[in-house]
Design goal:
The chain is 54% helix and 7% strand. It is built from 13 helices and 5 strands. Strand 1, helix 1 (18-31) and strand 2 form a beta-alpha-beta unit. Helix 4 (87-96) runs parallel beside helix 13. The protein binds tryptophan. The site of tryptophan has 13 residues, from strand 1, helix 7 and strand 4.
């Protein structure tokens, strides 16, 4: 029996933060034991908004190194860079030609990002979800671990595979593409901003104090926690809609202390912010310490990370080539001889 295949990815824009770790990568680590896991750094997605060419390569290496530092094991997982496997762009083009424009125009994330970009919206930003569909469909992924915000993109990938490729160009017995399912991650899946408990921790928030990155030094973590938004109430609690900051920070403490929600709730039920914040800061520092140590060791010699990415590219390219051949044949292209 083949293990179910999983594919996911994160963009190499700026350092990964607690939300990426707790919401995504930490779950990827667990999936490795009983799934066939593919994790890519989606650098082609990073250029859908204006990017800095002087940083792209470095950010791509950093992101891959952080995957490994968080516990992604290159012996068990295929770790690679999206642009190193040209099949992503190629399948992306083919899928473009069968995807209705209005399916893309109604994507919530596009509408939000387009508003932020003002009059500088690229075709690539609109097309982002089609490339994401190609990422997933190339690997015959069974499951795609994503946060809530990516659910609509995954639905789109399913619709493209089923309605636009399989039903038009495949047969019932021999579908051209596997239709993937989302794996919506629950606990810790939504880490909120430190400066606003109602919005998600995000790389694109201009206020750096809103997030803790995996590479923040201990003093900076302590400072950011000290400045995090609070409220005038004493005692931490979960689930009070008036107190999103309390819910978020107590949730982080429960998760990262390893104590769990019930024990954390009891411990902090009568605790004021002045006592809680240093406790949380120390917990964060300790939880990130091993990740940062592994990261530094990996980055002491970029040959290591480059070798992992080379091996990943080879494995990924093999799988991708097989899928792409099936699609090309199905659509009637003349094979290269
Ligand atoms: N759009 C995803 C995000 O922002 C990143 C991504 C690109 C992705 N391609 C993917 C996630 C394929 C899962 C599978 O989180």
């Amino acid at each position: 029996m083949q293990r179910p295949r999983v594919l996911s990815g994160v963009q190499p824009t700026g350092a990964l933060h607690l939300g990426n770790w707790l919401g995504a990568i930490r779950n990827w680590v667990d999936l490795q034991s009983d799934h066939d896991t593919f994790f890519c750094v989606v650098d082609l997605h990073a250029i859908t908004v204006p990017h800095n060419p002087a940083r792209l390569a470095e950010d791509t290496r950093t992101t891959a190194a952080l995957y490994l530092a968080c516990g992604i094991d290159p012996e068990r997982s295929t770790v690679f860079v999206q642009s190193h496997v040209p099949a992503h762009s190629e399948l992306g083009w083919i899928l473009n030609c069968v995807t209705p424009l209005n399916w893309l125009e109604r994507m919530i994330q596009f509408k939000e990002k387009a508003i932020k970009q003002g009059d500088n919206v690229s075709v690539g930003l609109l097309d982002y979800p089609v490339l994401m569909a190609a990422d997933i469909l190339l690997y015959d992924a069974d499951l795609v671990p994503v946060g809530e915000d990516q659910k609509q993109h995954l639905e789109l990938a399913r619709d493209i595979a089923q309605q636009r490729i399989n039903s038009r160009f495949g047969s019932e017995e021999a579908p051209l593409l596997k239709v993937p399912k989302p794996l919506i991650l629950s606990e810790g899946a939504r880490v909120m901003s430190l400066t606003d408990g109602r919005s998600k921790m995000s790389k694109s928030d201009p206020n750096e104090g809103s997030r803790i990155t995996l590479l923040d030094p201990p003093e900076l973590i302590t400072k950011k926690v000290k400045r995090a938004k609070t409220d005038p109430v004493i005692g931490l609690e979960f689930g009070n809609p008036e107190r999103p900051e309390a819910d978020n920070l107590l949730g982080l403490y429960a998760l990262l202390s390893g104590k769990g929600r019930e024990a954390a709730r009891e411990e902090c039920a009568a605790m004021g912010w002045g006592a809680f914040k240093p406790l949380l800061a120390e917990t964060l520092v300790e939880a990130l310490r091993p990740v940062q140590e592994r990261y530094r060791a990996l980055r002491s010699d970029d040959g290591q990370i480059d070798a992992v990415l080379r091996q990943g590219r080879e494995r990924a390219a093999d799988v991708a080539a097989t899928t792409l051949r099936r699609v090309r044949d199905g659509l009637g292209f003349l094979p290269a001889r």
